[in-house]
Write a structure and sequence with these properties.
By secondary structure, this protein is an alpha+beta fold. It has two domains: about 120 residues, Cathepsin B, Chain A (Alpha-Beta Complex), CATH 3.90.70; about 170 residues, Up-down Bundle (ABC transporter transmembrane region fold), CATH 1.20.1560. It has twelve helices and six strands. A hairpin with a 3-residue loop joins strand 4 and strand 5.
Length: about 325
């Protein structure tokens, strides 16, 4: 099987999702999904140029021509809904709503599974499908000259590119997060001892040290949280400024054709989106990575203290992850 081609147990094609950056890129993004499905990973920007995308978008003929250029066979067909069901063995590009392109992956029960470059994978019923499908479809297959190339996008490569020049701040923020596991483990034990010996009237000479330990852990916890927040805020600001500068310099080096194909509002949005990406990277991805490390530390301590309870808790967490993985939207 060609690299990249995968199907579910129900025979639905799992086409890699490629989201459009602009509304006019739906055709190029749909073709990028088809090529990636057969193992040929081409950047969306490159396909946009090859498809001749303008401010009016592209058409089915241009998509078929570019697909043949990359070694696929492409054939336009006029299909009814029953014909679509018969073609469910392979992904198709459908002309949708007389102004959009989507990828048809197959049937899931009585519903049609689409991979929409505007929003990702979704299911539609027959009523919605019959209203939006125009009857025009593009069918593809591997040609004799087709060669797989490229590699799927990697989140880690993207994160590394954004963290270039900021790794020290990122490591410091993650280190503070891991250190927060120390008071998180010690505080419950001290709190239990405080309740047993002080609140219940069994004060001893060690009560002072228990209270002092609780206060010390709270101070350490608060200090680490402040340091982590400060480091993350500086990291987000530095990443935003560095990426905004790089993007501005890159925009100045682009040919006039790039600007003729895009609206001014889109260019401004790309500049401002750097701040959103930097904030998400600093406040979500890095914190989630720290959270995973902290969870592993807690699980290790719990297993050492009580193997049965620790094993049950760890197994329950892993089972929850499996359930979330298999119950998420298609």
């Amino acid at each position: 099987m060609t690299r990249g081609r995968t199907k579910t147990a129900a025979g639905v094609a799992r086409v890699p999702t490629v989201l459009q950056m602009e509304a006019v890129e739906c055709g190029a993004a749909s073709l990028a999904m088809i090529l990636a499905y057969y193992g040929r990973w081409i950047p969306l920007e490159e396909l946009r140029v090859q498809c001749g995308v303008t401010r009016d978008g592209s058409n089915a003929g241009q998509l078929a021509k570019v697909a043949r250029h990359h070694g696929l066979t492409a054939k336009g067909k006029r299909l009814e809904i029953e014909g679509i069901r018969d073609e469910a063995s392979r992904p198709l590009i459908l002309f949708w709503g007389f102004g959009h392109f989507v990828v048809f992956e197959g049937m899931k029960g009585n519903q049609f599974q689409l991979n929409d470059p505007a929003g990702g994978r979704r299911l539609v019923d027959e009523e919605e499908f019959s209203k939006s499908f125009t009857g025009i479809a593009l069918q593809f297959d591997v040609g004799p000259d087709f060669e797989p190339t490229g590699a799927p996008p990697s989140l880690m490569r993207g994160v590394q590119a954004w963290l270039q020049g900021n790794r020290t701040a990122a490591v410091f923020a993650m280190f503070c997060g891991l250190l927060l596991a120390v008071p998180g483990v010690i505080l419950p034990g001290l709190t239990g001892a405080f309740i047993d010996r002080v609140v219940q009237g069994q004060a001893t000479s060690s009560s002072f040290w228990i209270v002092s330990g609780i206060l010390a852990m709270l101070v350490i916890q608060g200090g680490l949280q402040l340091l982590q927040g400060f480091a993350l805020n500086r990291l987000v600001l530095r990443m935003f400024l560095m990426q905004a500068t790089r993007l501005a310099n890159h925009l100045l080096d682009l040919p006039m054709r790039f600007y003729l194909q895009r609206s001014p509002g889109d260019l401004v949005q790309r500049l401002t989106s750097n701040q959103v990406i930097a904030a998400n990277l600093g406040n979500q991805i890095l914190l989630q990575m720290v959270g995973i490390g902290t969870a592993v530390a807690y699980a290790t301590v719990l297993i050492l203290m009580n193997p049965l309870i620790g094993g049950l808790a760890t197994g329950g967490a892993l089972l929850l992850l499996v359930c979330v993985r298999f119950t998420k939207r298609p």
